[in-house]
Every structure is written in C-alpha cells, then in structure tokens.
Amino acid sequence: MKKFILKNLFSIFGEKKKEQLRIITFHDILREDHDKFLNLIQYLKKNWNIITPDQSKNIINSKDLKDLKVNKKNILITFDDAFKSQKIITEKFLDPLNIKALFFIVSDFVKISSKDEAHKFIKKNFFKDQNLDHNIDLEANNMSLDDLRYLVSKGHTIGGHTKTHKQLSKIKDKDTLIKEIIDSKKFLENEIGIKIEDFAYTFGDLDSINKVSVDIIMKNFNYLYSGLRGNNSNISSKILRRDAVDMKEDFEVISAYLNGYVDLIYNKKLIKLEKWNC
Ligand SMILES: [Zn+2]
Description:
TIM Barrel, 10 helices, globular
C-alpha cells in the first residue's frame, strides 16, 4: 500500500526542485539486476548531480551551499557490507562513467576465501532476525582485500562497517564494541594503506544505534552514516542520513524516496539520534 502511494505521488509530482544532498546505499546487486542498476545510474546522471565522497563532505562542512558551485540536487553512492557484486558493477558501470563511490566494509567478511564460508557468514551475520530462514543468492560472495585495493586505486573511498556486522546497540561489553568499531578500522587501514574517516551503522535503524556506540564512533571517525532517510544539505551534524535502495522496488518508488516524499516519517528519529552526539 505504501509503495502504491509513493509510486503515485512520484507519478503526479515528479522530481522536486528542492536543494538536496542524498546519500544512497546499495547492498548485494544480483546479476539479474545489473541492467536495472545501470538504468538507475543513468537516470540519476540525468536528473541529479552524482558527487564524490569528498564533494559530499565539502557540502556537509559548508555553511552555505551557494558558496559551492554545485547543482541543487546532489547524490552520493555508497555500498554496504563488501559483496563481490559491488566490485563487479563498479568495474562494469561506475568506473567507465568516472563515478566515485564510498564502500562500507565488514572487515572479517573480506578475509574469507571460499563461497561456502561467505554464505555461512552472510547467514550468521547479515540478518537481524536469526529465526527466519533467509534465502541467500547462490552467487553471493565477498570482496577480497585485493578487491578493496583495486577500488582505492580507482579513486573510490573505503569506510568502516564493523568487524562481524554485529548490532552495536545490543553489545554490552566495551571490549567487543572496541573490536567491532576500532580494531576493524585499524585492520583495514594497515592492510590497504589508507586512512578511514567514514563509518556506517550496521542495520542502520534507530533500534541498532545507541549513545555508547555513537560516542566511540565519533571519537574515531569524522562521519557517521545511519540508515535513516533524509536530506543532508544544511544539516549541522556529522551524523548523516541515507536512503537504502532495494533493487526489487519500482523505479518510481526509489525516486519518491530520493525526492524526500517520506522524509517526515524519519524526523523524530533523527532528532533523537542527533541528540546523542552532544
Ligand atoms: Zn550492513
């Protein structure tokens, strides 16, 4: 029902002219969705200004968007979890278009060297509800450290996304929190030879976030990416909003999200989240 309403809203009102900095998130991109992914990127290229992670930070740090010679509708592409498919579509579609993205990496996932192990890891760690029987894409696999080095060599940015994809709000002891947040960052920095300043929450909903983990993250990273939808232009916080894109959703529904048709629903949650960073 909600999707039906969104689809119609977008069909009637279309692209909004409002000033925007949206950050979109992809997860595993199945082979059957490659064409749709390319169509979406081409649509965004036409209607939005696809920016680099650095340009996104310039906008966030700038008090006045008009100081920056950028379009009104800016969008940054991010990927979560370190699925192999993300490297494949980057090589195939993003690199030829010179689009730079931000990849949030689960550091234990990129250590895996067999598909069987990767599937076990996905089943064990990537779903919030362990009681449900989750279907895993048979082709799903993890990126390797060499894949990450490749992405960096192409000008993409690497961010942290914990060690084993734990739900941080549910962790009681500080040692585990430090392992998940800080040790995973150090491991990637040492292995790839980079500095990491971006961190994305696992699961991303407010229930998965709490003050203790926000404090540790903000001491060790410059930018925190949630999974709460919203516009990031003219915000005073370094806790950022993101729009998850489900490749199974209709194009109009994705566009409705990106144009902020559901942002109001997230306002209260965002206020609560930003208060934790004081
Ligand atoms: Zn994730």
